[in-house]
Amino acid sequence: MARTTLTRTVLAAVSAAALFALGACSSDAGTQTGGGGETQAADDGVITLGFSQVGAESGWRAANTKSIQDTLTAENGFDLKFSDAQQKQENQIRAIRSYIAQQVDVIAFSPVVETGWDAVLQEAKDAGIPVILTDRAVDSSDETLYESFIGSDFVLEGEMAGQWAAEQYDGEGYQAVELQGTTGAAPAIDRKEGFESAIAGSDIEIIDSQTGNFTRAEGKTVMEGFLNAHDDIDLVFAHNDDMGLGAIEAIEAAGMTPGEDIKIITIDAVKDGMQALADGKINYIVECNPLLGPDLADITKKVLAGEEVEKRIVVKDEAFDQAAAKEALPTREY
Ligand code: AHR
To answer: Measuring CA to CA, which residue among 245, 248, 238 is closest to residue 271?
Structure first.
């Protein structure tokens, strides 16, 4: 269905030099590629969508990628071009420029960090290609640079985690450590803000806070550092399950019992996290729903049909204590 406008044709010629390969991390399920590497999108009703994913840093991300790839299929009328940015903004910008040069119908992406997108989004706008944000927001004063943002309310997630901590542990003088997500990423900024505001009236004190980059390995390493630096840690707030699971390994290696000697609260509620919660190693998890594929497909079709779409689509999240995790696990989708 590629809507080849004059602007886009000219821009494609100008930016032919930018049409370099996305490397081993990009995949293309179905689009025909000409001998010179340029894409020939057929005018056959198929929607060509270029998606730039953050990376493969967590169980949540794997579930999110699966949802997008399972939904934006040829059977559903899509030609999905998918690239993995390996948690690097420069890779995402390169991918978006490549999608512009290929004259895709729509670009969707989940921004690694919040800032620094205006220039490349303006290039997409100038080329007449609508952009849809999924999962994470961009920090831009120009809301015309994208059509819609589909994702959870990360501030609310942090608040839910902090409210539960305050309800359970206020009055105990708890010392907490925080495993932050990727520096500059919307969920790291917002979850921190939400958690801090929710515990503000309690006597829980955050004594240390560092990034674990949303990965299990870095969560473990940072937690080892916290345990070496502080004698009396009562609570871990991890911005995602994977970092919390890494912290569990560090706590166990230090001879302590996670969930008892040191309480743990995380965000995501993916299967591994929920299993650790049901096993008593995590105390509470706030969900972040990764199943964004169906909403992305729906909004894409509406945008291309010229329909009004909501600028912000908030995905609803639940929260689980240990009993709720045991109940939910058998039917958990991700
Ligand atoms: O942007 C969503 C966050 O990114 C998830 O909570 C985390 O697991 C992922 O890496």
So the answer is: 245
User: What are the angstrom distances between the C-alpha of 16 and each of 102, 127, 294?
Assistant: 9, 13, 32
Inter-residue contact 279 to 252 (CB < 8 Å): no
In the block, residue with structure tokens 């994702």: 151
Residue 264: count of CB within 10 angstroms of its CB: 26
From residue 127, alpha-carbon distances to 2, 12, 21, 107, 189 in Å are 12, 8, 20, 11, 31
How many CB atoms are closer than 10 A to CB 285?
31
CA of 186 to the centre of ligand 1 (A): 9
12: pLDDT confidence band, cut at 50, 70 and 90?
Answer: very low
Q: How far does Cα 276 stand from its chain's mean position?
A: 21
Nearest Cα neighbor of 40 from 70, 2, 80 is 2
Any ligand 1 atom below 6 A from CB of 281: no
pLDDT band at 44 (very low <50, low <70, confident <90, very high): confident
User: How far does residue 307's CA lie from ligand 1's centre (Å)?
Assistant: 30
Indicate if the alpha-carbon torsion angle 159, 210, 248, 267 is positive or negative: positive
* pLDDT tens by residue, 16-35: 333 333 433 455 533 332 33
Mutate to test the pocket of ligand 1, among 180, 268, 271 (most ligand atoms within 8 A of CB): 268
Q: How many CB atoms lie within 10 A of CB 138?
A: 21
Mean of pLDDT values over 55-64: 98
Tell me which residue of 14, 20, 51 sits closest to 36, measured CA to CA: 20
Contact 31, 48 (CB under 8 A): yes
Query: Is a pLDDT exceeding 60 seen at residue 293?
Result: yes
- In terms of residues, how long is the chain? 334
SS3 category, 221: helix
> How many percent of the chain have pLDDT more than 70?
87
Query: Over 70: is that where the pLDDT of 229 sits?
Result: yes
| Angle made by CA atoms 157, 163, 164, in degrees to the nearest 5 | 95
